[in-house]
Specification:
The chain has helices at 45-57, 76-83, 103-108, 123-130, 135-147, 167-173, 202-210, 275-280, 286-294, 321-324; strands at residues 12-16, 62-66, 89-94, 113-117, 152-158, 179-185, 215-217, 226-231, 237-241, 254-257, 262-264, 273-274. By secondary structure, it is of the alpha/beta class. The structure holds S-adenosylmethionine and iron/sulfur cluster.
């Protein structure tokens, strides 16, 4: 069992498959020239399977594939196939571009849910945010997932002055689609030029929504990071992820494996433990995992203020989001 010094049991592992991506979202990737990790330094199919099995033996019951963009890896179908054989709930977060290419493999893997990131419903704005022209494909692929009965959620990072005027358009999507729209507060990472006044808070989001729709809170599980709400006569629902204004560290059950095989016990942790080098050298990985979990800080990697308006990003020591795996 992977228990930290605050008694939190970790049963949810997020595995980043790559730091490469076919989009360039400004809030995720550093603006300066970025060199993607060469393939040989990434965990290979067998290594991912081996590490995942080790974690499952330690009580991991849920795995989410993420990145970078997990589906840009040519061997993503092989990785998905291997992990789908393990006794875990399999989930994925993707930008949605390659869903149509890999649909049969995704259907066969029996994903419990797939989250697609989409921050705007306007194609010109999609280009401004992602610096690529894939809006129509992503939008069509969301419909494709729904047509195939795959539980689908949309992640929208809400940023003041960027897309906060589209919140109600996203809520409207839940009227006839069995979809969850997850409104995410903008978070600071290395190189993403975050400032606190760009954060559109969950209170702001709910305030906008309540002008038009009454909402009913849906009871949350002990580890849920999202507060979900139903809306009368809507088949879908909405959820809010309030990392900046109301962090949910007390119930945290998640750990992260970066694409180059480093274990991070928190999205905001400074430290990380290199599992891949030890695995390749034939060393013992389990004691490293246990030590990493024991060193987990109580809140926000021990380096973010709980009052987000006082965060000074100059003092933030972390990777960029694309290299952590969101
Ligand atoms: N490429 C995939 C995608 O975009 O869904 C998976 C990786 S992405 C890093 C995972 C999630 O992190 C996405 O939903 C993205 O919107 C979110 N994300 C990235 N940077 C963020 C930030 N600065 N604040 C909040 N969420 C962020
Ligand atoms: Fe790529 Fe996802 Fe980051 Fe956008 S949010 S740059 S799609 S990894």
């Amino acid at each position: 069992m992977l228990k930290d010094t605050f008694g939190r049991i970790h049963n949810y592992l997020r595995i980043s498959l790559t730091d490469n991506c076919n989009l360039r979202c400004f809030y995720c990737m550093p603006e300066e020239e970025y060199n993607f990790t060469p393939h040989g330094q990434l965990m290979q199919v067998d290594e991912i399977e081996l590490l995942a099995k080790l974690f499952v033996d330690q009580g991991i019951s849920k795995i989410r594939l993420t990145g970078g963009e997990p589906l840009v890896r040519k061997d993503a179908p092989a990785i998905i196939e291997r992990l789908s054989q393990l006794p875990v709930e399999l989930h994925m977060t993707s930008n949605g571009i390659r869903i149509d290419d890999m649909l049969p493999q995704l259907v066969a893997a029996n994903f419990k849910s797939i989250n697609i990131s989409l921050d705007t419903l306007r194609s010109e704005r999609f280009f401004q945010i992602t610096r690529r022209d894939y809006f129509d494909r992503v939008r069509a692929n969301i419909d494709l997932l729904l047509q195939h009965g795959i539980c689908t959620k949309i992640n929208m990072v809400v940023m003041k002055g960027v897309n906060d005027d589209e919140i109600l358009d996203f809520v409207a999507l839940t009227k006839n689609n069995p979809i969850e729209i997850r409104f995410i507060e903008f978070m600071p990472f290395s190189g993403n030029k975050w400032t606190s006044n760009q954060v559109y808070t969950q209170a702001d989001i709910l305030h906008q929504i309540h002008k038009v729709y009454p909402t009913d809170p849906i009871p949350a599980g002990p580890h849920d990071t999202a507060r979900a709400f139903a809306i009368a006569d809507h088949v879908g629902r909405i959820a809010l992820i309030s990392t900046m204004t109301a962090p949910f560290c007390a119930g945290c059950n998640r750990i992260r494996l970066t694409a180059d095989g480093k274990l991070k016990n928190c999205l905001f942790s400074q430290g990380e433990t290199d599992l891949l080098t030890t695995l390749r050298a034939g060393g013992e990985v389990l004691p490293l995992i246990q030590e990493n979990i024991r060193s987990k800080s109580k809140e926000l990697g021990g380096q973010l203020m709980t009052n987000f308006e006082q965060i000074d990003t100059d003092f933030l020591k972390n990777r960029s989001m694309i290299t952590i795996g969101g």
